[in-house]
Amino acid sequence: MPPIDYDPATEIHVRRFQGKLTSDRCQAMAGEVEAEINSLIEEDPEARLAFDLAGVDFIVSAFIRLCLQAARRMPKGNFTIVHCQPEVRKIFSVAGLDKLIELS
Amino acid sequence: MDQVALIMEKAVMAAAEFNQFDQAATDRVVEAVFRAAFNARIRLAGMAVEETGMGVKEDKVLKNVLASLLVYRDIRGEKTAGVIGYDERLGITEIAQPLGPIFALTPVTNPTSTVIFKILICLKTRNPIVISPHGRATKCSCETARICYEAALAVGAPEDCVQWISEGSHDLTHRFMSHPNLALILATGGSGLVAAAYSSGTPAIGVGPGNVPVLIDRSADFPFAVSSIISSKTFDNGTVCASEQAVVVEKAVAEEVRAEFERQNCYFASPEETAKIEAAVINPKTGGVNPAIVGRPAAEVAKRAGLEPPAGTKIIIVPLDRVAADEPLSGEVLAPVLAFYAEEDYPAACNRCISLNYRGGLGHTAAIYANDEERIRQFGGLMNAGRVVVNTPSSQGGVGGTFNTLPTSFTLGCGSGGKNITTDNISAKNLINIKKVCRRRPNAMWDEFETGKFLDDSFDADSLPGEYGRNF
After folding, report:
1. N or C: which terminus of chain B has fewer CB atoms within 10 Å of its end residue's CB?
2. Alpha carbon of A10: minimum distance to chain B alpha carbons (Å)
3. Chain A hits for B15, Cβ within 8 Å
4. What are the pLDDT digits (tens) for B304-313?
């Protein structure tokens, strides 16, 4: 998994995901992502983070929970999900995340 | 987070994940659940009888077979994910969408079979399900749900696609039913529960009690009819809501029918004995049926009433001449107790069936034994029932799949008479939203109309033929 990149133009840290985010993959990466977020917040409590899902075409509920946890860890409004494919964007709406997290 | 919120959050997540399943992935889950439920049918039936004290183990095994094998065979070929239909001429593509989380109330009378059935049809339609079992069937229902869930998970079903409540309460049930993220309530149970489901504000398919009249017409084959009714009414000791509740015959054949019932080991109660049966079967405080006799064999019901029918008695038959609220045995009794009415003629027999139908069984099931097509047609037209079964045991006939080609179901829609939206035997097709993508297909007739004329008040319905020809 790639580490979190920083985009100086937008001042947003970007974590990219690829492919099908199955239960096994989510389980394997959950600790790693959590550690990355903790480290980011430790470094800069006001940091802004985006999950980039441009390369993602399937997500399981465990990934939705991962997104929810990230949103809860970050200051309000500092966490976004970007570049959702429509199929994945729809899933976030079904799960009700569109009311809690900024999605694009 | 409290229990309701937590379970509903998990259900919503499962619904989201389930949305992405295509037909093949969905069908893998359904097949795995069918196989697991079918393989556990005997153990689960034993658990159900032991826990509830109702019914007959061998019959509950058969119910589990109906709920697993027959339901699976009904739904396995159905398209329930993605594009399910396309008509080039009409220009309409149909796309199946899941409803979302479904809250399923399951009864004490058919606990494990109803759980299997509801899980199969929910998973087939990619809807997560939360099972809320009857309080006296919690253990066997939760075990059934667990077996199905683990089988589903093993082939990649979404986590939490099946959940169950092991300790329910009135308050908890109501909170689930009115939860804003709930898509549908699938309620099978008592009338109070079903009414609560309908008043919750959440869409509901609720099926309550029946009161099935069975008319044995003079054209019927009496030995066949009686044998069929006995096999139906004694099946699982009469716990099926589609089971016969009252036999109606013309007086001219009443003695012959009665003799046939007696020959086939049924016992006709005297007026004094009928009063004793009523006292044993009906709870005087509530006016409802005493739960202790539900699903119990005829001998035990007789013993509770202080009767001593001949050994081997299959059904206790109580001759009645009224249908009324203050004649409680004219209502539904889910035990081998059957009312018997002898009427002057065929119209009077039909009228009696209508009265029974309107005494708590609206929209449910009615039955006729006849070999006179005109009478079968007439009876079918008179009954307010989702199913009118002909020359068929109504328990099995109503549930479908064995004696007819109705979809096998443990939730029998009762139409508007039963405050339902449908008279269908509820199945997977009732649990999807069908989205229609409509391509432009101009209406040639509309194109020919000069729509400006509709703004002219003098252009009335009589003007249409003159303007557009008689074939408008």
Report:
1. N
2. 31
3. 94-95
4. 999 999 999 9
Question: Does residue B97 register a pLDDT over 70?
Answer: yes
Predicted structure pTM score: 0.92
Q: CA neighbours within 13 Å on the CB side: how many for A48?
A: 13
B16, B100, B159: residue with CB nearest A91: B16
Which residues of chain B are within 8 Å of residue A61 when distances are taken between CB atoms?
10, 13-14, 16-17, 158-160
Q: State whether CATH 3.40.309.10 applies to domain B212-406.
A: yes
Its domain, for residue A55, covers 5-103
**B residues 76-105 lying closer than 8 A (beta carbon) to A:** 100
Task: Find the CATH number of the domain harbouring A94.
Answer: 3.30.750.24
DSSP B404: S
In DSSP terms, B368 is beta-bridged to B215, B390
Quote the CATH superfamily of domain B3-207+426-434. Answer: Aldehyde Dehydrogenase; Chain A, domain 1 (3.40.605.10)
Over 90: is that where the pLDDT of B449 sits? no
Q: Do A61 and B19 touch (CB under 8 A)?
A: no
In this prediction, residue B472 has a pLDDT band, given cuts at 50, 70 and 90, of low
Looking at the DSSP assignment, which residues form a beta bridge with residue B357? none
Extents of the domains making up chain B: 3-207+426-434, 212-406, 442-468
Query: Directed axis angle between helix B111-124 and helix B57-65, to 10°?
Result: 10
Residue of chain A whose Cα is closest to the Cα of B181: A96
Which contiguous run of DSSP H or E holds residue B430? none
Determine, for residues B12 and A87 on separate chains, whether the beta-carbon distance falls below 8 Å.
no
Mean predicted confidence (pLDDT) in B197-222: 93
On whether ipTM exceeds 0.90, the answer is no
pLDDT in tens, A39-54: 999 999 999 999 999 9
Q: Are B313 and B299 in contact (CB under 8 A)?
A: yes
Asked if the C-beta of A9 comes within 8 angstroms of chain B's C-beta atoms, the answer is no
First to last CA, chain A: 22
